[in-house]
Amino acid sequence: MQKNTFDVILLIGRPASGKSEIIHFLKQLPDDARRERFHIENLEVRDDFPMLWTWFEEDDILSNKFGLPRLHSGEGGYFKFPELWHLLIERLSLDYGKLVRDDPSYHGHTTCVIEFSRGSEHGGYAEAFQHLSDEVIRHAAILYVRVPFEESLRKNRRRFNPDKPDSILEHGLSDEKMKRLYQEDDFASIAPGDSGQIEIRGQRVPFIVFPNEDDVTTDKPEQLAARLESVLGELWEMYEK
């Protein structure tokens, strides 16, 4: 039977743009519906936020309990070195490589979603993509969730739960950090238009934009399903070729 599902989707966009809600929606679907309507097999997610949050927690332990220097971040909560943003991408690629190494039939039953956000302040997507492994690039399609910065800021404020700052669906950033790190977004400059292909280190990768200015990812399951089915269907046509 001909394969009908993505191997890897790079799910990107500003914080609180709707990426995690899309993943949550897809995970709730019956396997057959997810496969036939959205071209996604069993869903495995690799997200750089848990890694990033672990670094901050470790820094707090080193500083507050042991009186030692913080390894990754300063007291203001920013990374000490911009290369740490690139290290996160390298780690995502490393994790993916282990998955396919240990299971040669991995993509026969699993679609890997690699999720992250990058603002221009730390190199943007243009720089982040350069740190993906060749193997990830070869198998990838890009789904970019588009919202203006003001919408990202609004939803970031709304979703933040101070009791669960490590939560995928309820974490948030201060307004100052949002503005510094994510106000400028370079995706439209490296991938003009709503769909097409971009070149990453000599390989052509299909991309598509999921427009979410009207926030269909919040409490609008029918609208989300219809739009996501349309967008992923178009992306699949490019990917299949």
Summarize the structure.
With 241 residues, this protein is α/β, with parallel strands linked by helices. 48% of the residues lie in helices and 17% in strands.
Tally of structural domains:
1
| CATH domain class name | Alpha Beta
Indicate the percent of residues in helices: 40-55%
Query: Shape, please?
Result: globular
Radius of gyration: 18 Å
Relevant CATH superfamily? P-loop containing nucleotide triphosphate hydrolases
Please count the helical segments: 11
Overall pLDDT: 92
- The structural class is alpha/beta
Please write out the topology.
Layout: E1 8-13, H1 19-28, H2 31-38, E2 42-47, H3 48-66, H4 83-102, H5 106-109, E3 110-116, H6 124-129, H7 134-139, E4 140-146, H8 149-159, H9 175-182, H10 187-190, E5 195-200, E6 203-211, H11 221-240
Parallel strand pairs: 1-3, 1-4, 2-3, 4-6
Antiparallel strand pairs: 5-6
Task: Explain this structure.
The chain is of the alpha/beta class and 241 residues long. The protein has one domain: Rossmann fold (3-Layer(aba) Sandwich), CATH 3.40.50. The chain contains 11 helices and 6 strands. The protein has a 6-stranded mixed beta sheet with strand order 2-3-1-4-6-5, sandwiched between helices. The chain is globular and about 60 Å long.
Give a quick set of tags describing it.
alpha/beta, 241 residues, Rossmann fold, 17% strand, single chain, 6 strands, six-stranded mixed β-sheet
